[in-house]
Amino acid sequence: MENDRYDVVIVGSGAAGGFAAKELTEQGLTVLVLDAGRQVGAADASALKRGAGARGVQLRARMLATALGQPLQARVAFFNAAMKRFLVKDWLHPYRTPKDAPFLWVRGRQVGGRLHVFGRVLFRWSDHEFKGPAGPWPISYGDLAPWYEKVERFLGLHGNVDGVETAPDGVMATPASFTGHELVFKRAAERRWPDRKVISWRFAPPDRDALPAALVAALESGRMTLQPDAIATQILTDPVTGRATGVSYVDRRTGRRRQVLGAAVMVCASPIESVRLLLNSRSARHPDGIGNSAGLLGRYFMDQPASLVFGALPPLAAQGGGQDLPTHPLYGATGGMIIPRYADLDGAAGDDIRGGYSFQGSAGRDPALGPDDSADAVFMGYGEMLPYRDNAISLDPQRRDRWGVPLPVIRCALHDNERRMLVKQIAEVVEMIEVAGGSVNAWVSPLGLEERGAGLYPKLNPLARWIVRKMMPKSMVMGAAIHESGGARMGADPATSVLNRFNQAWDAPNLFVTDASAFPSGGSMGTTLTVMALTTRACAHLAGELKAGRL
């Protein structure tokens, strides 16, 4: 493999890397995919089947995972026992954060990355993100729309045509529905606030194989070589031109260092790892890391400030509706509600808050959460963090991991705008639950935990509730949304960005970065579908340039 030269070397095999491999092999190119983690197989599929459907706080599973080396990963909001095999051992993968700005870095090191544990809810972004106050991007919704459609058709999403401007309609294969309690909530909220729309999840069905579907398609092409256990340490560059020539990596099992060559390199390792790799790729032509000539690499890192609200709705005489979407391999029966952003649509929220927020929730789907004879109503809010220069990923100058790569130092701190946003975000979803006839028991966010009424997890015994109260605020620090972005932002000017509108590095045009590190703004909806579409678009451009001899 070391003596072979590929058309493209891809680092990472998750949402970005998988679709990069699929698109490039469809274009007839040969690709090598490097992944830092292990291969997945039948044992992983079996573990998922055994653990599917586990709900509630999962306190025993969290405590066991903590004792066995996953004290940070066990804080994931919807953690369960089956999930732990897809998350890292924290002691093997340290990182640093400022004491006053904790960040929960949720990581999976196996082929497919975090696609094995993500919620599979996929929404398009709109021009309120691409042209909003937190941006702007060098592209518009119109530039990405055909690529969204290509991804949606491949995945076969479940969902509806909703006609909501801030959640553009996609191509859905199968409709989705509400539970009776969700219909009550929807009707009450939309009647009271006509600008707030309550719509069903858009959901990707589970993969048929242990490997994500895009990787399967790339493998079946015969043009992809997949190399697991390959920890990328540096992007190799030509000392004269500064262009990327390949990737240096360490074999995780043997410790042997290897180099692989390609006409182009795509970095798809997720925001923190991608920025870390680029910063560590220093050379005479790139003394501060490749892509860092403007001093912006690692800057403007973001995550979506998240809140989790626990409530209950009164029982219904007849439930009605609510056929679940296909069973999630980790979370069991799925389905629920999305309230797309409705605030600050034109950069003027009517108060001193900039940026929007959305909610994802469900009602009547998890009896473990509500008091007796009531239906749970659980909502997670996602806020749009503004890009700040001081929120950044950097390298520890002294500490390295066991493979010789400097540890990442992650700063993702709330500013006053985000603190005010969280207060408003929580107050508005509490108000919506109450207008629907329900009550709110607790909420938790980076601002802390508050309880009222029945309180948090009222069915737990007193000791378990005490432990959960201590644990939950640590679960909802920044990073809890698992929607991190930024650090290698796209733009129209090399003086203010790392990448151009096709995700090419200004400093090395045959180097592409297509995961969420490329995002100039963080949005208020999930990032995964946009990552997939952005990657597919960049790959079409890469293939055209390569075939035309311009790379």
Question: What would you say this structure looks like, in words?
Answer:
By secondary structure, the protein is an alpha+beta fold. Helix content is 25%, strand content 20%. The protein has eleven helices and 19 strands. Strands 1, 2, 4, 5, 6, 7, 18 and 19 form an eight-stranded mixed β-sheet that branches. Strands 3-11-12-13-8-16-17 form a seven-stranded antiparallel β-sheet, sandwiched between helices. Strands 9-10 form a two-stranded antiparallel ribbon. A hairpin with a 6-residue loop joins β5 and β6. The longest helix has 20 residues. The chain is globular and about 70 Å long. It starts with a strand and ends with a helix.
